[in-house]
Amino acid sequence: MVRKNVNILVAILLSSFLVLAGCSSKSTDKSSSKNEAANKPDTFVYGIDGDPGNAVNVITTGDRYGLMEIKTLYSPLYMYNGKDNVKYFLAESMTPSEDFLTYTAKLRKDVKWHDGQPFTADDVVFTYEQMLKEENGGWARSQLLFNNQPVKVEKVDDYTVKFTLPTVSMGALEALGNIFIMPKHVYDGETNIANSTKNATPVGTGPYKLKEYKAGESVTFEKNDDYFLGAPKIAKVVYRIIMDPNTATMALQKGEINALAIQPSDSNKLKGSNVTLKPYDEGRIGYLAFNLSSKAVQEKEVRQAIAFGVNRDEINTASYISTDYSKPAYSFLPKKATYFTDKVEKHTFDTKKAKDLLSKAGVSNLKLKLAFIANNPIQQKQAAVIQQNLKAAGISVELVGMDATALSKKLQSVQTDFDMYLSGYIMGIDPDTFNSLFVTNGEANYMHYSNPKVDELFNQGRVEKDEAKRKAIYEEIQKLIIEDAAFYPLTENKRILAIDSRVKGIEEAGLVPVYTFEDMSKLSY
Amino acid sequence: MLKYIFKRILQAIPLLFIISIICFTLIQLAPYDAVDAMTTPNMTKETVELIKARYGLDRPAYLQYFYWVKGIIGGEWGYSIVTHESITNDLSARIPNTILLVLPAYILALFFSIILGLLAGANKGKLADKIIDGLSSFGIAIPSFWMAMILVFIFGHRLNIFPILGMHTIGNEESFFDLLSHMVLPCTVLMLSFIPELVRYVRSSAIGQLSEDYVMVQQAYGANPTSIVFKHVLRNVLLPIITIVGMSLPMLVTGAVVTETVFGWPGIGTYFVKAIQGFDYPVVMAIMLLSASLVIIGNLVSDILYSIVDPRIKGMGE
Lengths: 525, 318
Prior knowledge:
heterodimer; A: D-Maltodextrin-Binding Protein, domain 2; Dipeptide-binding Protein, domain 1; 4 domains; eleven-stranded mixed β-sheet; four-stranded antiparallel β-sheet; B: mainly alpha; MetI-like fold; 14 helices; globular
């Protein structure tokens, strides 16, 4: 009995080994021929370092890769890229009334959903209603509330929609845009959009249709020949999930993928290969901010001392290597935002001044904690240089590296675990979209900053119809915020897209924040 | 024999229940509210209550536990609160991928370890033993992500023999050979990380067996050393190996986290890490329960196998 069973065990082990060994040796000689077939020029493979999941929907999806998928499958009415740069998709026009209280959208008449149904004003009204329903948890709900009142969305006829605002808001054109429209005939009656099984088989109006989602591996799209802006030129698009940045860079060099967002420090590795680097502006501001719940940084002089004590240019060179990838930032607004000005206090690096300010405030032996995301290579370098700079000014800084989720949880609460932190944001074009960062109790006001004058100016700016007066208001806000020295802008950095040199039409497709391509149908080989 | 097996299975059931209670309690004790992952700070109290009610978070903990266990027994593991996906679907898509990677690697590792371990044990103190034992120490010390990057660089990049990404080449999902060529590098990395420990185990077990009386008897009869080792010692060395194999069962789920991340393999590892980072508590709970249960089941299976292979054990149990 014993002998027999052991024999069987050995036999199983042996045979399974032989089978496997046989297979793997065969696979060796096959694989090289497979690699050549990998990049048929009818497929565009974009490497991403997150999994968008299979529940992507226009209401609750808010992460970068989920939104990239949304942009490929669905279309918005229009994308607001700047005051004179509105790109229309499902809408042909969006016009405000004289008093800026109603906006009228004229819709395209030639648009079909992926399942062949016509697109009409009903879909638009349905989408905005779902976005406004509080229990749906829609990502854009707060931007559709004006003075805590929701915008009213009505169908005028099949191809006209009227938006009525409760109060005047000069940022409304931007706030109402960039929302992707979902099909009413599919989602009607669905009570739980976030968990709906319909999300697995999305029906959109975008340039591509979803072909297959493979958990943790890839999302595959095939072209929509009926796309209203012309059929896409590349038949298949794949978002390939690669969590490890080293593997991803190597896969790009090998040609297993055709595009990837890379770190500045990897840019030299890729020079001279078959890959082109396209740094583009996302309007992202990277900053150093103070946690105003913390006692140590209550005094303005202390914060100013730190602002003078750090060397912005040195920090940026250390973290972004070249000015091709990053420009110094002085205001809380990025350059492409309306009413941007850099005529603010620049806090030019001056260790002596920092020391003077500290002694004026009567503070000595200052010890501060600086929080940042531990595995973010950019923030690691920024933090290291800040620590060095401030040491020279007589301030000792303890670096507190944290997990990204843990840090964001901390920031959302009132706590004194650290005195300063590194972070960044991508907001919008109109300066009003930045208000939640700075107004008292704003939802993204992680500094817990409060300046009644700033609050008041933001409220005035939102409703001011006169162009020149509005400009003056926002320039004033930019000056005030920097003078309070609670917020120290470091850099306006670019995202570096490394893309297969054979890919054409990148200018026409347009590189935009978050989604990468504004219209993927224009890419070609 | 059957009675013993039956008894062991009965003993495992309460253990599984205790494990499920521990998993649930640990998550309940974690210093955050599960509803935070679904709400934003500007939501009103009523909305938060509404969401709580929708996910059953307003009920007392023991009821929540009851619903959770009921769901698990019925094959319904709930939804991720970050991606809103069904956990059952997510797990059933990813677990086979991980098993596909870990199982062949483990079997190969076991096979090589037995040979190398016996060789080292039989030649204790000699050159072969020193080399094998030294390399094992070296192997235990090497982090697997480093090994993975080295293999990727040499075989994937420089020599360009194997693909380095995922399970399939795009557009070639049906091809079995394509899958195999994708498996070679990650499997090798895993195998190299499994081997050292197993070799040391087999080696020490072989050294123990070689000092037994039956070996001396064989030697006295003039049997040649190779046949002693592979005919008689091997059999006895395999017995404790069964325990090791049984204990390794949870590796089928969580055994390749690092390797999967490096090779972009769509398995359970990356999914689990992501869930922990995102406070996705239903997912964390599901995987915790799964791997804890596998420890118990692994023990159970190795006990049963042991009793089949070695009847002496059964006698001790009674």
